[in-house]
């Protein structure tokens, strides 16, 4: 039987050093990329969509401003 009160021993907290990339799957990629650029200080870097020959997926690559 599973007991939800006893979750076992806790691990020591790790340290987050850095990351290479994060992928978000969203319903409206243009709106999401625009939000991150306007509100959180990112900048557009690359685009993949109908104009570049991709008929199934639209991707916006954004980069943090250094």
UniProtKB/TrEMBL annotation:
Superkingdom, taxonomy of origin: Eukaryota
Cofactor: Fe cation
GO biological process, one term: L-tyrosine catabolic process
Catalytic activity: 3-(4-hydroxyphenyl)pyruvate + O2 = homogentisate + CO2
Keyword Flavoprotein belongs to the record: no
Sorted UniProt keywords: Dioxygenase, Iron, Metal-binding, Oxidoreductase, Repeat
GO cellular component term of the entry, any: Golgi membrane
GO molecular function: 4-hydroxyphenylpyruvate dioxygenase activity; lactoylglutathione lyase activity; metal ion binding
InterPro entries associated with the record: 4OHPhenylPyrv_dOase, Glyas_Bleomycin-R_OHBP_Dase, Glyas_Fos-R_dOase_dom, Glyoxalase_1_CS, VOC_core
Pfam family, any one: Glyoxalase
Ranges where the VOC domain occurs: 18-66
PANTHER family in the cross-refs: 4-HYDROXYPHENYLPYRUVATE DIOXYGENASE
Family, per entry: Belongs to the 4HPPD family.
Role played: Catalyzes the conversion of 4-hydroxyphenylpyruvic acid to homogentisic acid, one of the steps in tyrosine catabolism.
Protein name from the UniProt record: 4-hydroxyphenylpyruvate dioxygenase
Source organism per UniProt: Dissostichus eleginoides (Patagonian toothfish)
């Amino acid at each position: 039987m599973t007991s939800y009160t006893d979750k076992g021993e806790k691990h020591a907290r790790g340290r987050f050093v850095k990351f290479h990339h994060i992928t978000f799957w969203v319903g409206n990629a243009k709106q999401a990329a625009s939000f991150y650029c306007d509100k959180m200080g990112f900048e557009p870097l690359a685009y993949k969509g109908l104009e570049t020959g991709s008929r199934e997926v639209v991707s916006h690559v954004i980069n943090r401003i250094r």
